[in-house]
Automatic annotation (TrEMBL):
The chain crosses the membrane at residues 78-103, 137-155, 167-185, 205-225, 237-261. It comes from the Archaea. GO terms for biological process: respiratory electron transport chain. Keywords: Membrane, Transmembrane, Transmembrane helix. GO terms for cellular component: membrane. It comes from Haloferax marinum. Residues 30-264 form the Cytochrome b/b6 N-terminal region profile domain. The keyword Transmembrane applies. This is Cytochrome bc complex cytochrome b subunit.
Length: 264
């Protein structure tokens, strides 16, 4: 008597009975081969069961409960703002990563290196003007879409129970979006960036008790310098993308679990 588990299904015989295209046959053969070794089908069934259990546990939305599908059709375009802001973020991230190949922050105590690299991108790099424009416009679209998305959530009452946690997470995300925009605004190190940075220093110094410490931490001192640009570069390129991407994934995951809230 063999202890080896017997096959419940004769997959090869089943495939011979079916009129499969070469692509379908290759896909099924690969899936069967992987399933024997990694139990992929079992995990897919587990995810499917979890999906239906989660959705059955959620209360019905107002449109489902009162059959209002044809009453609120004019709201539906506003429910795409979250997706729109996410797509704008992805475009900004990809274009920003490409710009990072050519942008250089201040080196050897000379902050003008950043400005010179922007000039090179805009004037000499092939498609550089277009690439920076895509990055700038996608960032602006993201800020506008996130702001309108928050307004839609508020005025349709989508922040109410059981979605309070995602509302708070959205407030954190829109705040980080503002920080994203501000740190990127300073990277060209032109006149606009310089005076925006000076305003940031003055605002930091106005914080009661901890103002000087905040200015030293965020701007590297009480006046703008190479340390300021390096801090903005680290925040914009290395810290914020990972934090924001993680929070967006959690935000979307909660929406998937809870479903979209229609107008209250």
């Amino acid at each position: 008597m063999s202890l080896e588990r017997k096959e419940e299904h004769d997959h090869k015989a089943w495939m011979k009975k079916k009129d499969l295209t070469p692509i379908e046959a290759t896909f099924l053969t690969t899936l069967i081969w992987l399933d024997k070794r990694l139990r992929i089908v079992d995990y897919l069934e587990l995810l499917e069961t979890l999906y239906y259990k989660v959705n059955l546990q959620m209360p019905k939305s107002h449109t489902e409960q009162y059959n209002l599908d044809n009453k609120f059709w004019y709201w539906y375009p506003l429910y795409t703002l979250g997706l729109f802001s996410t797509l704008a973020y992805v475009v900004a991230a990809i274009s920003g990563a490409l710009l990072g190949f050519y942008y250089s922050p201040a080196t050897s105590g000379d902050p003008t290196t950043a400005y010179n690299s922007i000039e090179f991108i805009m004037r000499d790099l092939q498609f550089g003007f277009m690439l920076r424009s895509i990055h700038r416009w996608s960032a602006q679209v993201m800020v506008a879409a996130v702001f309108l998305h928050m307004l839609r959530v508020y005025f349709t009452g989508s922040y109410k129970e059981p979605r309070e946690l995602n509302w708070l997470l959205g407030i954190v995300l829109i705040s980080l979006t503002m920080v994203f925009g501000y740190t990127g605004y300073l990277l060209p190190w032109d006149q606009l960036a310089f005076w925006a940075g000076q305003i940031g220093v003055e605002m930091s110094l106005s914080v009661p008790l901890a103002g000087e410490w905040v200015a030293q931490l965020l701007f590297g001192g009480f006046t703008l310098s190479q340390a300021t640009l390096q801090r903005m570069y680290i925040l914009h390129v290395f810290l914020l993308p990972f934090v924001v991407t993680t929070l967006i994934a959690i935000h979307i995951g909660i929406v998937w679990v809870q479903g979209i809230a229609e107008p209250h």
